[in-house]
């Protein structure tokens, strides 16, 4: 693993390679660190540049280990990850607290060389000094030791949290006969039957993977089965031996102590100081204002669903429960719009979706994507190259789209290698996209839901942000931007999925080649904002739960964070939550990383405001307008964190964002 190069030999990397490689790289990095901390006047290239690239190879190897633990999980990979976690965490903490390096950094900032830096390198110096201060460079000996202990413990306990979620999800299976699967789409019947056969069992194997649970909760007529699956989901994070509830309290306590040690009132203020929101209170205000403006429509939607349910099921039918709402909401949508999202799937085979996405990217952003060859970590992995308009190879990336029991849930993009402008030309970037989409059936390709199509476009937006970066400083490149700005490139890509001209490039029936019928397209668009207020309130519930725990909850007090999270989420649930509801104990976004989305889940809505507003320029000037696309590349995708994100947004739009754009797009304000 020491010389993994650009085309990473994933087929040769083994868990036993990890610790020795990291030990060697840590020793090299520590030697370089001492050299950087030595006295003597130096310029940017032999000080700031070397500091910028100090942990580059170590970071790539660490990312690869964490990635493989997430996609081909095994006891050996988990052990390898846990072996390197404390060592890497300790080094990064020591790096930020090294008195000699901190003195050298401050000394360099006073030199003529530093005062003459171009704007991007000057920003790098400024942000580096701020990061050192935020990470405790001014702490004295006792404080430094305590911060090291906090960081090391946080790395371990958040890793345990994520592993518990992964293991609990993988452990669940339920075998049922077809008679219990009335209403469930045929593709799900085929996939779950095949899954059972591969394990030597009859019937259908049901799991907690999203391509199974979502259609079950949406379409299964068997109410008891829906209840069983919903309750199984609620057990994730609180089973004996995998109980995350105590870990939530410990993580919150460690984060609060770390924030206070570094001079912040709470973890949210610590995290958000260098983001667009600026503080925990500002983020809370943002979410609560959106909630207040959305709640009237939310309550109206729920009253309409209740009336529809009573009309269909009878006035004496049982009250709607958590396992009923999605099912009856889909019935209501079908009745109101004569539209079933399942009717779209035959028009979204994965390969066509990708080819359409790549064609849209060529037309709008002027770059081409072509499949290439490189070793992967699983037979389903694919590899692609990206070239810009003049044929320069600017990036490559891997894809891994389908669920496995050894793969964590969700969808994500990671950067593996950061390239960009160099003295001898342009070095390519390397990244990956992973998901848990509907897999191919025995006799059919992978047919995606409209939500899964949006997810593919979303992750590719992140990938483009990484791949098209032209920032010469590694730590300012690509997606290394303020967290509440990072979702703009990903979320804006989703807009093309609802445009007829874009869909015509790829939405064709997998058997007949027929284009998506106009009446089906119109129904899809008409139904787009169906229960939009409920969708928004669900996101607010996550963001406000996150912020409540990281701003208002006192880890030193007697309150139970699990109960507080339930109390917060109750305001946003159109059904009663059980007394032991503890979804937060499975909330990996918040708690499976020392920082992750902790105190930052509001970023999704923040960036939705930006993307809804920014896409209005494409809507006005043309969704395939290459000049508009080039402007977005030049102002956003290529610039990374080379300038303040608010300034980059103003450069593209000519003004600050219009917060009403999101509510208008969602149908919650008049167009």
From TrEMBL:
Gene3D superfamilies: Collagenase (Catalytic Domain), Neurolysin, domain 3. Residues 23-144 form the Oligopeptidase A N-terminal domain. Its EC number is 3.4.24.70. It catalyses: Hydrolysis of oligopeptides, with broad specificity. Gly or Ala commonly occur as P1 or P1' residues, but more distant residues are also important, as is shown by the fact that Z-Gly-Pro-Gly-|-Gly-Pro-Ala is cleaved, but not Z-(Gly)(5). Binds 1 zinc ion. It is an enzyme of class 3 (hydrolase). Its cofactor is Zn(2+). Keywords: Hydrolase, Metal-binding, Metalloprotease, Protease, Zinc. SUPFAM superfamilies: Metalloproteases ('zincins'), catalytic domain (SSF55486). Residues 216-667 form the Peptidase M3A/M3B catalytic domain. InterPro entries: M3A_DCP, MetalloPept_cat_dom_sf, Neurolysin/TOP_dom2, OpdA_N, Pept_M3A_M3B, Pept_M3A_M3B_dom. Belongs to the peptidase M3 family. This is oligopeptidase A. It comes from Deinococcus aerophilus.
């Amino acid at each position: 693993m020491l010389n993994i190069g650009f085309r990473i030999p994933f087929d040769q990397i083994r868990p036993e390679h990890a610790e020795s490689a990291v030990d060697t790289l840590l020793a090299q990095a520590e030697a370089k660190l001492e050299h950087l901390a030595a006295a003597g006047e130096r310029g940017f290239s032999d000080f700031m540049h070397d500091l910028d690239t100090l942990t580059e190879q170590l970071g790539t190897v660490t990312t690869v280990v964490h990635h493989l633990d997430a996609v081909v999980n095994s006891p050996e990979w988990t052990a390898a990850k846990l072996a390197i976690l404390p060592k890497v965490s300790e080094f990064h903490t020591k790096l930020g607290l090294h008195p000699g390096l901190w003195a050298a950094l401050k000394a360099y900032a006073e030199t003529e060389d530093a005062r003459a830096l171009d704007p991007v390198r000057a920003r790098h110096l400024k942000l580096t000094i701020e990061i050192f201060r935020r990470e405790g460079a001014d702490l004295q000996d006792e404080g430094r030791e305590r911060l090291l202990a906090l960081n090391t413990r946080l790395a371990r306990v958040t890793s345990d949290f994520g592993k518990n979620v992964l293991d609990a999800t993988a452990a669940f299976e339920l075998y049922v006969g077809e008679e219990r699967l009335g209403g469930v789409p045929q593709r799900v019947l085929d996939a779950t039957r095949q899954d059972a056969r591969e394990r030597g069992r009859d019937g259908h194997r049901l799991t907690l993977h999203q391509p199974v649970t979502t259609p079950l909760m949406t379409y299964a007529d068997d109410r008891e089965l829906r209840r069983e699956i919903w309750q199984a989901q609620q057990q994730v994070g609180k089973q004996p031996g995998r109980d995350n509830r105590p870990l939530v309290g410990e993580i919150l306590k460690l984060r609060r102590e770390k924030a206070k040690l570094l001079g912040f009132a709470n973890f949210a203020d610590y995290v958000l100081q260098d983001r667009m929101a600026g503080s925990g209170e500002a983020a809370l205000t943002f979410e609560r204002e959106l909630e207040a403006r959305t709640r009237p429509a939310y309550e109206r939607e729920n009253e309409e669903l209740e009336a529809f349910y009573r009309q269909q099921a009878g006035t004496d039918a049982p009250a709607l429960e958590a396992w009923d709402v999605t099912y009856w909401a889909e019935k209501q949508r079908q009745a109101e719009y004569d539209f079933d999202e399942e009717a779209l799937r035959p028009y979204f085979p994965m390969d066509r979706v990708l080819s359409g996405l790549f064609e849209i990217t060529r037309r709008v952003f002027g770059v081409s994507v072509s499949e290439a060859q490189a070793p992967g970590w699983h037979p389903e992995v694919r590899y692609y190259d990206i070239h810009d308009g003049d044929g320069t190879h600017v990036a490559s990336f891997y894809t891994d789209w389908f669920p496995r029991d050894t793969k964590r849930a969700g969808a994500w993009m990671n950067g593996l290698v950061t390239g960009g402008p160099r003295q001898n030309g342009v070095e390519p970037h390397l990244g990956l996209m992973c998901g848990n989409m509907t897999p191919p059936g025995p006799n059919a390709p992978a047919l995606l839901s409209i939500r899964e199509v949006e997810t593919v476009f979303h992750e590719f937006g992140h990938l483009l942000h990484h791949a098209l970066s032209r920032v010469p400083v590694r730590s300012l490149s690509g997606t290394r931007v303020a967290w509440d700005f990072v979702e703009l490139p990903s979320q804006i890509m989703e807009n093309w999925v609802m445009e007829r001209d874009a869909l015509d490039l790829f939405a064709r029936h997998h058997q007949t080649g027929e284009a998506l019928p106009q009446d089906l397209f119109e129904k899809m668009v008409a139904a787009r904002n169906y229960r939009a207020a409920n969708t928004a309130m669900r996101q607010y519930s996550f963001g406000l739960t996150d912020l409540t725990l990281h701003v208002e909850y006192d880890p030193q007090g007697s309150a139970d964070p699990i109960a507080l999270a339930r109390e917060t989420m109750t305001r946003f649930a159109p059904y009663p939550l059980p007394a032991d509801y503890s979804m937060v104990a499975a909330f990996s976004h918040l708690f499976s990383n020392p920082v992750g989305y902790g105190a930052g889940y509001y970023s999704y809505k923040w960036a939705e405001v930006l993307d809804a507003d920014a896409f209005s320029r494409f809507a006005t000037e043309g969704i395939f307008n290459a000049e508009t696309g080039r402007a977005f590349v030049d102002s956003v995708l290529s610039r990374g964190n080379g300038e303040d994100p608010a300034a980059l947004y103003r450069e593209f739009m000519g003004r600050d964002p219009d917060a009403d754009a999101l509510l208008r797009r969602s149908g919650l304000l008049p167009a």
